[in-house]
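Justification of computing resources. Each target in the renewal requires a structure prediction run like the one illustrated here; the chain below, 258 residues long, is used simply to show the kind of job we budget for.
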Amino acid sequence: MEPPPHILVVDDDREIRDLLSKFLERQSCRVTAARDAREARRLWPLGRYHLVVLDLMLPGESGLDFARWLRGQSDVPIVMLTAMSEETDRIVGLELGADDYVAKPFNPRELLARIRAVLRRAGGEGSAPQQPPAKAIRFAGWTLEPARRRLLNPDGVEVPLTGGEYELLMVLVDRSNRVLTRDMLMDLLRGRQAGPFDRAIDVAVSRLRRKLEDDGRNPTLIKTVRGGGYVLAATVEKVNDRPPAAANGDHPAGAPVS
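Resulting structure tokens:
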């Protein structure tokens, strides 16, 4: 039996911390709470966290600054808590690698649904056991290994992806040369019930383009279709053999945390 997901809640509002801790624990989660970024930094090395719920409006070091630090440590999924008026901060948070956001005030059940969806995408909770895929997927010189959830560049070097970036790439690869609207991408990635936010898709595509070294101003791989959406303009090949590991061996620095 798998252990319950361990969630780090970072929020300076004691009432919210207590409410979330009790609610998530009733939903079979293990919760550690921190009142600010300083305390969260202290708690970070003491546990193996599956997800972080992070309020952006923290005293002292902001949630965005802590998210930036956290991304330097790990690819642990991040769900942001934001005020309705903080659209710019939401966009910056998504660009930093956050996986989802919930606007305050929020329903705890909505937050729970977002957490479970993000954990499923990251393979951390609630996903049905599956046989690892036997094939690697190659496109435009890149290789995607679904069994290991990793991406190799044309030189065979691993390029770390967050859970959200990996899922977006899989959606595009599975539907290569097909135009996918923002609404379609939202539905495929997390479902309409998660609350569509078109700018989040644009930010996610921009981050993935940078990982794929695809010029955002003149992309040749993930193309923007005016008034339509996005399309992966590449021939996709599924193969049984896997490319050899990169010459420099393991890649502990920046490798995705499973």
